[in-house]
Amino acid sequence: MELKEKLLDSHLAFEEQSEVNETIQGFRTRALRVFEKKGFPTRKIEAWKYTSLASVVNKNYALFPRTDSGIELKHVKRYFLYDIDTYKIVFIDGIYSPFLSETTHDGLDVCLLSAALSKQKYKPIIDKYFNKAAVKDESLTALNTAFAKEGAYIYIPKNKVSENPIEIVHFSTGEQKALWLQPRNLIVVEENAQVQIIERHQSLSSHDVVTNTVTEIHAHKDSLLDYYKIQNDLDSASLIDNTYIVQEKNSHVSVHTFSFGGKLVRNNLNYFHKDQNIMSTLKGLTILKGKQHVDHNTLVNHSKPNCDSHQDYKGIYSEQSKGVFNGKIFVDKIAQKTNAFQQSNNILIDDKATINSKPQLEIFADDVKCSHGCTIGQLDEDTLFYLRSRGIPRKEAKALLTYAFANNILQSVQINVLKKRINGQIAEKLGVNLGFDL
Amino acid sequence: MLTIENLHAVVDGKLILNGIDLDVKAGEIHAIMGPNGSGKSTLSSVIAGNKVYEMTKGNILLNGENINELDAETRAHKGIFISFQYPVEIPGVSVTNFIKTAINASRKAQGLEDMPASEMLKKIRQKAALLDIDRKFLSRSLNEGFSGGEKKRNEIFQMAMLEPKLSILDETDSGLDIDALKIVANGVNRLRNKNNAVILITHYQRLLNYIIPDFVHVINEGKIVKSGTKDLAKELEAKGYDWIKKELN
């Protein structure tokens, strides 16, 4: 049976064992119809021109994981920011792990979406925000909505500054041969509140796993959200990340995406502006090798005046890896004084590596500042010569220059231990010991 | 220390060096002067092993060993240093970390362990003091946002740290005001000893007021056309390069 049919057929059984109200059921049913009609996107669709899901959807996946996949903390400790205090929402094969998690209801809610969807006290928030930011007619988002049940629920009340960063971690154990996961996250940051969130998906075995995740974010007036996506998974793991961000007046939402691994990764990152003086920051660093494939598909929808957006994506591609950057900036005719910046810089290390970079600007206002730039290059021999003349061998010299190229994406990482950790990962990806602590 | 015999080099099919002969002994300072485009900078690049330039004829010997085929990093490990006119900026890598990487790369090539941190720190402090460099400077990203003078001073700092046998200073005086020039020249003079040698590549005589060369060579159209003592530099300053060209004709 094809994956699409299997998903459609299994929906009834899914609904039977799920305890949610009619509103949620209504969302799910309507979403299932969208997916039934549209199916998986193919390369005939412009937005999927350079990324084919064919190799991902042709397997027989387990859709509902078994429970009780225990893992020991010592085996997965390195995937957490263990050197500082954090709240943690951890899932193993899609199922909440109370043992690895550290949730809270003390002044803010860091807990499970399944609880929020079923408990009466969360109903006003769920009614107001669940499935509101997500775009309804996008088929993979609809597929996720149809099966939306579990994930992270984060609510930061007015004027609250979360002392600890929040980690959302999804492990897959490989106990099942191939697994299809669909986590759903809802994040609400109320007026003048602040929070830092780190999300990662980590496979612990070489069995196939595909994660089709949706994250909805609502950032209210004067709020500050700093979000980090760490994508450094095994070559058997694929990720389709759909993130929808709604921003209110004077808010600043910043998303850093570090893509260092995985078989196929698609990031659909969407920003919507509801008021003025908003700042949206999108930063990405992609370092790939082998046959890894990462596609960044961004949208900043400037629908109000006096807002800023800043996109800065850097990619380093070795061997036969492939990168895609498709950055869309839409400026509505009333969105005067928009300041939208977009930059995509890429280095191709090997002859067979590829990058497809496409800026897409649709501007209907006349008093705006929009700039975009794209570079694709190789490391310059004269520059390498400078380092080699100091006795640094070619390989290390290349790594040092590549590191320098990537560096500005790291500079804006606000969590020091995370910055240090990513530095270490970059050194590891570049395959050298640079002789000093990065 | 360095012997160059009948050196020819081309870049993009164009002959730049057309038979250079040069002999530099330990303890000596040689100045190489010449008009723009005469091949001065090419000569320094070729000695340091920049493969953008193709050596078509001749030999380069370092302490009797032919280094024609050696790559740039190996030449550096053997004690050749070149200071650049336009040093590269490396954001995110501090001056200190860069020099540590360079020193330990050379030590590794010689089969030595990394230099102990305390020893490295002591050496950095000592050499920084010699060149009037303060500690804040050392933690800045290499050459990023440096002024012309800071870049040159940083080049000499690297030279001081690496302790090369042969240093080639390519247009180190360009873009320096008189105070920076004095600091750089003073550093070079204090680093000099009977076991190392320096080649100064310069367009102007100015630098040679502060670093006194043992020999001055004039290069024109890829050839050394006249050699002499420091007085030759003064004569050039007074009469200009046209004088040499006329004399040749």
Describe this structure in a few short sentences.
Chain A is 23% helix and 37% strand. Chain A has 438 residues and is of the alpha/beta class.
Written account of the structure:
The complex is a heterodimer of chains A (438) and B (249). With 438 residues, chain A is α/β, with parallel strands linked by helices. Chain A folds into two domains: 3-275, no CATH class; 382-438, no CATH class. Helices cover 23% and strands 37% of the residues of chain A. Chain A contains ten helices and 20 strands. Chain A has helices at residues 3-16, 22-38, 54-57, 73-76, 113-118, 123-129, 139-146, 381-388, 394-411, 416-430; strands at residues 87-92, 95-96, 109-112, 152-156, 166-172, 178-181, 184-189, 194-203, 208-219, 224-231, 237-247, 252-259, 264-273, 279-288, 293-302, 308-317, 322-331, 339-348, 354-363, 369-377. In chain A, α2 packs antiparallel against α7 (139-146) and α8 crosses α9 (394-411). The longest helix of chain A is centred in the C-terminal third of the chain and has 18 residues, at 394-411. Chain A is globular. Chain B is α/β, with parallel strands linked by helices and 249 residues long. Chain B has a single domain (2-248), classed as Rossmann fold, CATH 3.40.50.300. Chain B has nine helices and twelve strands. The two termini of chain B are 33 Å apart. Chain B has helices at 40-48, 72-77, 95-109, 117-130, 135-138, 148-162, 178-191, 230-239, 241-248, and strands at 2-11, 14-24, 29-33, 54-62, 65-66, 80-83, 90-94, 141-142, 166-170, 197-202, 215-220, 223-228. In chain B, the strands form three sheets. In chain B, strands 6-9-10-3-11-12 form a six-stranded mixed β-sheet, sandwiched between helices. A four-stranded antiparallel β-sheet of chain B has the order 2-1-4-5, covered by helices on one side. The model of chain B has no long low-confidence stretch (mean pLDDT 91). Chain A binds chain B through residues 381-383, 385-394, 396-397, 400-401, 403-404, 407-408, 410-411, 434-436, and chain B through 45, 48-52, 71-73, 75-77, 80-82, 84, 87-93, 97-98, 100-106, 109, 114, 158, 162.
